[in-house]
Amino acid sequence: MFSWPVSSPFAILHIDLWIPGHHTDPNGYIALMNTMCDMSQFVVVVPVPNESSATLASFFMQHVLMKFGLCQLVVLDDGISFKGAFIAMCDALNLNYDVLAKRIHKGLTVKHFHRFLNKSITISTEDCGTNDVFVPAGIATGYAWNSVPIDGTDILCSIPTIGRELYFLIDINLSALPKLAHNSGQAALDYLKLTDSSRHFSSSILKILIEDRGTAHAERINNNRNIVVLEPGDIVMARTAIQSNKQKEKVAKLCYAVRGPYQIFEPQVMVAILFKNYID
């Protein structure tokens, strides 16, 4: 059954590449490597110059892990052409990873951000009249995404991850200037004393809200499932994911995606949509 985990920020990361077609910006970047925390939905947008595993490992380590902490699990999509590069990246960094079942793209939560990213960059490129702005537009989109509430809550994505609210220019212009801290150590101690009384309570409430959100998602998805009981002797067909291969001159959309027929020899219970549980 489908369920959402309750974990600490950046314990489980969903990662994917967003590529604006065959285009390279003036700084040599060709894609955006987007990483999303499974719990807080906080996203980190990192521009990359190529899709090699060495580059992905270097940028992922420098801009994500070394800034926000090491993760326990990296979740990958099985339907992407650069899945092998991500697997090689995880192997090089000695990170645990798991690959979603084929055709289950909704299980990769960063895909939700990509839909928002598509619309945002489309507006930016139309206004500027060039595709060269996809990197700054993508980074600004990530900032805007992190400043909105987590699904089903009124808690901003940035609060459980970096511990503060993200402001925009209009917010800064309307607020008073902060006081300078003459003793940074004492200022940090005073801040911790101010927030300590509500920190544990807020964390508990956040976990409860995420559990409720996961339960609601599970009920909604499980109600739409078609459970089929297969008996010995039944004839079935199997669907497979086909990837295009230029060397073998194979085009995915010109290949049969259905194989069979096959005969069932043992009783089986099949579900139309399969999800995996991620428990830290």
Describe the structure in your own words.
With 280 residues, the protein is α/β, with parallel strands linked by helices. The chain has two domains: 12-222, Nucleotidyltransferase, domain 5, CATH 3.30.420.10; 227-271, no CATH class. It is built from seven helices and nine strands; from the N terminus they run βββαβαβαααααββββ. The protein has helices at residues 53-68, 83-93, 110-128, 134-146, 158-162, 169-174, 184-222, and strands at residues 12-18, 31-37, 43-48, 73-76, 97-99, 227-230, 235-239, 258-263, 268-271. Strands 3-2-1-4-5 form a five-stranded mixed sheet, sandwiched between helices. It has a two-stranded antiparallel ribbon with strand order 6-9. The protein has a two-stranded antiparallel sheet with strand order 7-8. α2 links the parallel β4 (73-76) and β5 (97-99). α1 packs across α2 (83-93) and α3 (110-128) packs across α4 (134-146). It starts with 11 loop residues before the first strand and ends in a 9-residue tail after the last strand. Mean pLDDT is 80; it is low at 1-7 and 271-280.
